[in-house]
Structure formats: C-alpha cells, structure tokens
Design goal:
The structure is a homodimer of 326-residue chains. The first copy, chain A, has 326 residues and is of the alpha/beta class. Chain A has twelve helices and 14 strands. The first copy, chain A, has a seven-stranded parallel beta sheet, with helices on both faces. The two termini of chain A are 15 Å apart.
Chain lengths: 326, 326
C-alpha cells in the first residue's frame, strides 16, 4: 500500500499569489516532495533579454530571495542599472534590479547556446538549493496577448506598462496550440512505475491570466485528470476582491461576477475540490463541489504553511475514498 | 587666412592612457574642437552583450563618469549583478559593474535593431554632454588576436582573463583588411570645404595593441597623411616602462628594446613630431625627428591639461612653416 504522504504534490502557479502557497507547500513537505508547474505565457523579450516573470517569482520565493517589499524581484536589490539606462534614454518601464538582471542575462545566454528553459530553471533551482522542482509549463513559446478596448497588447505592455488600465475584452495565448507540455511536466503527471501524485493544487493565481495558459496547452487537462490525484483549486478572491492583482477587475470587464463561485465554475470538470475563504462562507451552499472553508489570506510565512497543510489535508480527504473504497 | 586655433584637433586613442590626454585636450579646446578616433579591435561579445572597452573608457572619461580608483569602468559603481551572476555559475572573469552594464545592454539592443556603433556612440556622447566627438574607428568588426607561446587568444582572453601573462609572439587584427574606416572618421580627416585639422595626435596608448589596429584599417594611414595637419605621437613609455599596461613587457617579448626610440621609429613615415618624456631627455639626440621634451606623466587633471597645451603648441609650431612658408 503506497503512503500518500511520500507521493509528490504538484502545484500549478503563476507569480506572486501562487508562489506564496507554493512556498507554504515547500516548507511543509519533505525535500523533493513538491513540483511547481509554472506559467510561461508572461515571458517576453526585453532589452534583448528573455524575462520569465512567473518562473523568477517562484524561484526567488522558494529560494528565500524574494523582495518582501515590492512583491516582485529580489531582496537586497540595487537599482544602478536602471538609473544608468535612464541616462542613456533606454526603456525603463519594466523595472530590472541589478541582481535580478543577472538571472535574465545568464538565461538569455544559456537559451542562446541551446539549453532549454527547463534545464536552465532546474540548474538555478539546484544552485540556490530550492527544495522543490520548478518546471516551466513548456519549453515552447506561448505568449499571452490581451485584447483591450484600445486594441491588442502584448502581456507586459498591458500588465506593467499600462498597469492593466485598458478595459480587457479577451485573452489569447499565442503559440499555445502548437506548444508541447514540457517533457518533465509530462513525467511529473505520468509517474509510471512510481505512485501517483498525492495532490494537484491550482494555486491562488489569476485564473484568466496565469492558470489558463497552463491549461491551454494541448493535452494538459487530460494529463491533470489522468494523474490519479485529487485536483484542488484555492480561491484567489476574498470578499469579491483579489488580494493582489487585477483578477476582480478583469472578471468585471469580462462580464463575469467577481465571485469565488465564478472561479470554481471556471475550473469545472477539472477540479475535485475548492478552497473558499472563510469571509465568503455564505457562498458555500451555492457550490456543488467538495469544499474547504478556511482563512486563505497569506500574510505571514505561518499563514502560508497553515494554508498549505489545510489544502493537503483536504486533498487527502478527497483522495481516500478514491484510493481505497470503503 | 584660416586661424588654426578654431580648426579641429583629432586624437587617436585606445583606452586608459589615451583617454587621459583626450580629456586634457577636451578641457583646453572649445566645445566641438576635439574629435577622438577610438580603437574598436578590443571589442568583444560577452554574456551576449557587445562590449567596447576603449570607446567606453573614452566616453566615461570625457563625461566625467570614469572610475578614478579602478582606472576602468564607471565611478560610483555597484557590483550586485556580478555577485548574482556568480551565484548562478556565470562567467565573472570580466568584471561588469551595474551601471556599466546599462551601456552594454543598450548598445547591444541598438546594434541589434540596426543602428551603427558610430550612431550609438554619438547618441551616448550627446546624452552625457561630452564636448568632443567620439568616433569608433570603424563600424565593421575588427578583432585583435594575440599569438602567444600558448597559442592564439582572443584579445580579452589574453588581456583580462590571462592578465597578459602568456608571452606574446605576434598581434593580428582579424577583419582589418575588409573593414571600412567609419564614414564619420573619413569626414573628420577629409574636411572638404572647411579648414584642415589643426593637429592629429596619437595619444600615449599602447602602439601595438591600441593604435596599430586603427592604423591597420585600409586607407587610414593615407587619410592621416593627407589631412594637412601635423601628426604628433606622445610617448607611452617613461624611463623604459609604461605608466600602466603591458607596453614594455610586450616590446621585450617582441624582441624590441622598450624605449621611446622604438616607438618613434614604429610610427616612422606617419608622424611629424614626437613628444618625449623629460626623464628620457638623454635619448633626444638619437631621434631624427622634431621633438618636444616634457613631463608626460598625467597624474592630475592639471597634468592632462598642461600636456594637452604643450602638445598643441608643438603641433602649431610644426604646422606654421608648412602653412605659410617664410
């Protein structure tokens, strides 16, 4: 009888919100017990450098290098490069710290000599002693394009340069139909001889901008469903608003009620359970889905670890009847 | 009658030693009165970035941004990028400061979109209010290769990574035979309707590594000779040693006496006058060339300006008989 406590946990994550729960999971699981599949559709080329915002946020967060003030980038950061670039008339709308820059320069060099994004990311995780496996969703280019009232924008133009101001009409994932799920992601979800994953957790990232690109990869939904583990989504909304980011704004612009119910329904057919915030407990009756109601706000490291433990307990409770029918 | 005092002065320069005299010239001449033609054969691609050490040293020096302690790079520099790159296992033998990096990243981007090195350099000089025209010798790639006792090395491998340790056998300038003198350099040396240059000054840079690549460009020697201005070289050696850099070491390895006489002879057929250091005054009788003997050591800004004035006076004295034969 395989013990689910030793099986791996798989998390799907975008940037900040997702990385918070990934850190909690990483802390409460044994080394190597967590695999994070990360959105790469926010990646872009800027100043000749390949920048992967979500991968970097996950790496920095899990390595203990994340900037606690900004919510993005590295801790103990300096900004000399940006100042000098400004004096040269360069593009400074996307802020790149001096330490952060090293990751982009080295990644660009490694990709140029033929290494895969997966291989480079694994190398960085190893060097920084990250205790989880961090996997880009794909080594092929997928690029989010935002259709707005002012025309179509590249993701970072919309998200950073325009600060999500232009009303959003639709989201496209260029390249997704042709992109291949990274082989290492396939391996993680199709464990072969080893036991199936303990749980698959959709972190509280923006469903429309951060999780949908992962789910848009051909075969990804089938891989998730066939992995033999309960799939759990954690709400990114509390009381009708996102903790951080434009999730609720985007939902209103798409004509969707900015409610956790909308998000649970968005994942219908994929998830086995949904984690609802206690501030939205009154909505529990409206959901025809296994639910866990708890405090999902992650302010401290203790919050992240507590939520991670609760999500894992919830997954285990959902898994038990499936693994060993009474 | 054209007044030579308003005509332009042209300096040929490598990095540090040349930039010192260029700064002196820039300070004592009116704005726009100096054009510096800079060696680009030390340029190389590193970490995916185009780095132009001599152009950068000249730009930083003339903009008042040079690092006074290191002798290369920028003042008020920070080193976060290098520290982070090291943690990623990146190549750190060529030190790139955070501010310095902005110049390389922006240049690489601009070259990639089709701008010339000349156009980018002019743009930087303008933004930094450099009062001189800074011209790369060529927009075409010329790359110095050092033939050593241990085999052939790319210039920066020899100069920085190996610190000039391997005994030098020969110097090659790859690409020089096919490279075109930059059009703006041609314009500066062929002034057309305007008056000829007041003087052409070969700065006290390494003749073999920094000046020879400029002179190796097809047509460059003829342009210098035909410009109608006295050509003056300033010794880079004082008492048989270079103030900085491997000039004397290289001369010994090439079997050449490390003497200013050797250097004056090296420029034979090109120069009209030679500036000898007062510590080598005893050699004056051995040179069949117009000479100025003075203190060529440039420790302070005052030294740079004084030497610049003396070199210009020397040039004017050499020019007068040619301009208006008595």
């Amino acid at each position: 009888m395989s013990d689910s406590r030793t099986a791996s946990v798989i998390a799907l994550s975008g940037g900040i919100g997702g990385a918070k729960l990934a850190l909690g999971l990483c802390k409460v699981l044994p080394p190597g017990g967590l695999t994070v599949i990360v959105n790469t559709a926010d990646d872009f080329d800027h100043l000749g450098l390949r920048i992967c915002p979500d991968i970097d946020t996950v790496l920095y967060t899990l390595a203990g290098l994340a900037n606690p003030t900004l919510g993005w980038g590295r801790r103990d950061e300096t900004w000399s490069f940006m100042q000098a670039l400004e004096s040269l008339g360069g593009e400074t709308w996307f802020r790149l710290g001096d330490r952060d820059l090293a990751l982009h320069v080295e990644r660009t060099r490694r990709l140029h000599v033929g290494d895969s994004l997966t291989a480079f990311t694994a190398d960085v995780a190893r060097r920084w002693r990250v205790r989880a496996q961090v996997l880009p969703m794909s080594d092929d280019p997928v690029r989010t394009r935002i259709v707005t009232a002012e025309g179509e924008l590249a993701f970072q133009d919309y998200f950073v340069r325009r600060r999500c101001a232009p009303p959003l009409r639709a989201v496209k994932f260029h390249g997704a139909p042709e992109a291949r799920v990274a082989p290492q992601v396939q391996d993680a979800l199709r464990p072969g001889q080893t036991s199936p994953p303990r749980a698959i957790i959709i972190c509280p990232s923006n469903p429309y901008l951060s999780v949908d690109p992962i789910l848009a990869l051909p075969g990804m939904r089938a891989l998730l469903r066939a992995a033999g583990a309960p799939v759990i989504a954690v709400t990114p909304l509390i009381g009708g608003e996102a903790v951080k980011g434009p999730t609720a704004k985007i939902m209103r612009e798409l004509g969707l009620p900015p409610s956790p119910l909308t998000i649970a329904n968005h994942y219908a057919g994929l998830i086995d359970g949904f984690v609802l915030d206690e501030r939205d407990a009154d909505l529990a009756g409206s959901l025809d889905l296994s639910l866990r109601v708890t405090n999902t706000l992650m302010s401290s490291l203790e919050d992240r670890e507590r939520l991670a433990r609760e999500v894992l307990q919830f997954a285990d409770a959902l898994a038990r009847p499936r693994r060993s029918p009474a």
